[in-house]
Amino acid sequence: MIKRSLTVAVASLFMVGSFLVPAEAANKAGGLCKKANQKAKIGGFDYICQKNPTVKRAKLTWLIKECLDSNRQYLSGKQAYAKKLQEKADLLTQFAAAEADTSLTQADKEELARSKSALLDTFDKLSRTSKDMYEMALTVRDLACTVGI
Q1: What's the pLDDT tens digit per position in 27-80?
Q2: Exposed e or buried b per residue across 93-107, where buried means at least 16 C-beta atoms within 10 angstroms of its C-beta
Q3: 3-state SS assignment for residue 46
Q4: Residue 147 and residue 149: Cα distance in Å, rounded?
Q5: How many CA atoms lie within 13 A of 19 on its CB side?
Q6: Cα angle vertex 85, ends 53, 82, to 5°?
């Protein structure tokens, strides 16, 4: 009888103890989560429940905060690069309109050509820098969003 009572007591304690374990204890980096934007500390780092931006048809998983930050930097950098390319196209359109002006003297045409060359060189440098920045952010994002490293 004592053996049976002891077994029931131990089983009861085990069952009650399993209900008292916090839900965060089951969280694992890259593991599935249930509620978007939920936050947790895993291994001393901040994690957020989101879909991984590097995975197609991703499910909600625990992502380190830096993954989402670097993804935002990548997207804004890519947008800035596209804007620079559009600005360059607009500038070329303005120069084409100015070059079509028949009332320009030869000196004006030469000055316009120098200005065009200088501005296009500047735009090319800015565009390359912008592209390098967003490609670097892409690399950081891919590293930050990879589970297990």
Answers
A1: 888 899 999 999 999 888 999 999 999 888 889 999 999 999 999 999 999 999
A2: eebeeeeeeeeeeee
A3: strand
A4: 6
A5: 5
A6: 15
Q: Which residue has the tokens 């028949």?
A: 102
This prediction has a pTM of 0.68
The closest alpha carbon to 144, from 50, 33, 77, 32, belongs to 50
Sketch the domain layout of the chain as residue ranges.
24-144
Q: At what angle do helices 106-144 and 65-99 cross, to 10 degrees?
A: 170
Where helices occur in the chain by DSSP H, the ranges are 2-20, 65-99, 106-144
Centroid of chain to Cα 42: 21
Q: What is the pLDDT of residue 3?
A: 53
Question: What are the tens digits of pLDDT across the range 41-55?
Answer: 988 899 999 999 988
Cα-only R_g, the chain: 30
Distances (CA, A) of 108 to 46, 99, 102, 120: 61, 10, 11, 18
What Å distances lie between residue 41 and 24, 65, 99, 101, CA to CA?
8, 10, 62, 65
